[in-house]
Amino acid sequence: MASPQSPASSTSSRGSPSVYHDRPQTLEDLVTHFVASKRSLNSQTILWRANDIVTTARELLEENAILAAKNLSIRNIVDEQVDALEAVRRGIDLVEAEVQTEFKQLLHDLDTSFAGLNSTLAVLRDTPIESVLQPAGTPQKHLLDFIDNATVTNLKDSLRACIDRYNEARSTLGDSNDSYDTAMENLHSSIDNVPNSPATASNPSPIPTLYHDLEAHAKEAAQAFQSLVRHYDLCVTALRHTEGGSAAATQATGDAPIPSGDDFSVPPPEPMTEEERHEMLSVMARDAREVEDVVSEIRDRGSEMTFLLSQIENHVTHLRSEGSALNTILQMISRVAVEVKDHITTSRSFHAAWLEDTRPTLLSGIEEWENQREFYERFDLAYAELLVEIASRRRRHEKAKRKAEEAQKELDKLHSEDERSREQFTLTQGDFLPLDIWPGLRDPPRRYEVRAVSIEPEGEEEEGHEHMDGEEPHRTVQSIPQLGRNVVERALTRVKRRM
Questions:
Q1: Residues in CB range of 56: below 8 A, 6 or more apart
Q2: How far apart are CA 288 and CA 2, in angstroms?
Q3: DSSP 8-state code for residue 116
Q4: CA angle 265, 271, 273 (to 5 degrees)
Q5: Within a 10 A sphere around the Cβ of 245, how many other Cβ atoms?
Q6: Pick from 65, 85, 64, 77: which is nearest to 326 by CA?
């Protein structure tokens, strides 16, 4: 919109023939232009609103910077705290996994040891005691009958109780871990539901750009309004320099308040030539055709500013929502951190119970099973060797018996020879020798016997020991049983196999 004071407008007016050949402006035309220009000044309310928008946007721009920095800081804190909580959870899992791996291995070793013991016990259960070794009429016994099963049963019960305690501790730890996992899942879910930050390193905040555009619209709107004000002043000046113009303008505007400078009763300060007046009217007429467009432009820019402000407000509202959600996350993390102490305590108790109770008990059980299996294997081997020993003793007994019988025959033979020799001597020389020359002259020969000797009971060899009446001073040695050849061969095979 041109201005008569503008050099460009004046030059344009002088250089264009149409300026002088425009339709002459009547008083009615001037009043119409004046009323339209006065009405266009109502767009000032848009400028007031624009000023409020700029002020509000400036405050939001500052809040945006604060919220963005605060939210970014909180997000970093949240990431660090979540990483720490997950590290603790992984640590608990690591402890449990290590313990569980060793527990399974020890349980396997325990089962292996117990299976070996059961295998040995089965051998004892299936190994009968030879009937010739037992008193007559005794029920058939097996090697297992000589075993104290209470030792095995008590150890089995002790190990079962130990495993039950471990399972209870692990169940308690499992409940604690489930609670921990639930808390972490809720935390991650809440974090996922936090509104994504509308500004990132690759996508910075749009508010500075929006605010810059908003200021540009405000400036352009203000400049457009200034052109309307200049056009209005031009209309007033034209009416002052037109006869009857003031009265016509007052009649057209009615009771509407007259802005400053509308006092038409004041005479024009300076006279104006006809050429100057004609140029002024020409500019006024040309500008009058642009008034509606300028007003529309101001309205459009006002609407655009309102739209830009809504975008800024939406962005800041998003940041506020993000900040509120992040504060809620911090509160959740605080609660989880308090609960983590209990989870760590439970994990430590589980690990301590493993180190102080379960592990040493299982290791001791494995060692005890192995010791018992070894002892019972030695027992089985000893029984096999006993059978071999009995067979050996029987052979030595038979040999000694034969030797004794042979010796007895030799002694009996010598006794007979001695008896015959004495009788022959008596017949030959007896009549010539007096009996008192040697008291043993007529004695029979001494008889020797080879016989089994009874064993003195322990402690009976002491000097001066007297037996009670009716008490046997000796005990008879038990006869060595005769074992079947196949029994001895099986025993020898077992002994050789285990050597």
A1: 309
A2: 10
A3: H
A4: 130
A5: 20
A6: 77
**CA angle (485, 491, 494) in 5-degree steps:** 145
Q: What is the pLDDT of residue 98?
A: 96
End-to-end CA distance of the chain: 124
Given this model, what pLDDT does residue 361 score?
Answer: 96
Sequential DSSP letters for 129-143: PPGGGS-TTPPP-BG
What is the residue whose two structure tokens read 């035309």? 29
Mean pLDDT to the nearest integer, 279-291: 83
* Other Cβ atoms closer than 10 A to 258: 14
Which carries the bigger pLDDT value, residue 119 or residue 138? 119
User: What digits encode the pLDDT tens for the residues 380-436?
Assistant: 889 888 888 888 988 998 999 999 999 999 999 999 999 999 999 988 988 888 888
Question: Helix, strand, coil proportions of the chain in percent (round to 5)?
Answer: 75, 0, 25
Q: Which two tokens stand for residue 148?
A: 């104290």
pLDDT attached to residue 486: 87
Q: How confident is the model at residue 480 (pLDDT cuts 50, 70, 90)?
A: confident
User: How far apart, in Å, are the Cα atoms of 291 and each of 25, 49, 236?
Assistant: 17, 20, 15
On whether the CB atoms of residues 342 and 176 are closer than 8 A, the answer is: yes
**How does the average pLDDT of the chain come out, rounded?**
83
Q: At what angle do helices 207-240 and 27-40 cross, to 10 degrees?
A: 150
Q: Which of 289, 285, 231 is nearest to 23 (CA)?
A: 285
Handedness of CA 459, 464, 470, 474 (dihedral sign): positive
Taking the C-alpha atoms of residue 123 and residue 394, their distance in angstroms, rounded to an integer, is: 26
**Alpha-carbon distance 235 to 309, whole Å?**
36
pTM of the prediction? Answer: 0.65
The residue count of the chain comes to 499
Of 372, 440, 324, the closest CA to residue 159 belongs to: 372
pLDDT band at 16 (very low <50, low <70, confident <90, very high): very low
**pLDDT tens digits, residue range 353-362?**
999 999 999 9
Kindly state the DSSP code that residue 354 receives in the 8-state scheme. I
Please tell me what DSSP assigns to residue 22.
Answer: S
Rounded to whole angstroms, the Cα distance separating 200 from 68 reads: 10
Q: Where are the domains of the chain?
A: 1-375
Tokens coding 187: 């935390």
Dist. CA 373–CA 367, nearest whole Å = 10
d(CA 50, CA 44) in angstroms, rounded, equals 9
Contact of 53 with 214, CB cutoff 8 Å: yes
User: Which are the contacts of 390, defined by CB distance < 8 A and separation ≥ 6?
Assistant: 133, 480, 481, 483
Residue 128 phi, psi dihedral angles, 5° rounding: -80, 150
Residue that the structure tokens 């050949």 belong to: 21
| pLDDT for position 106 | 96
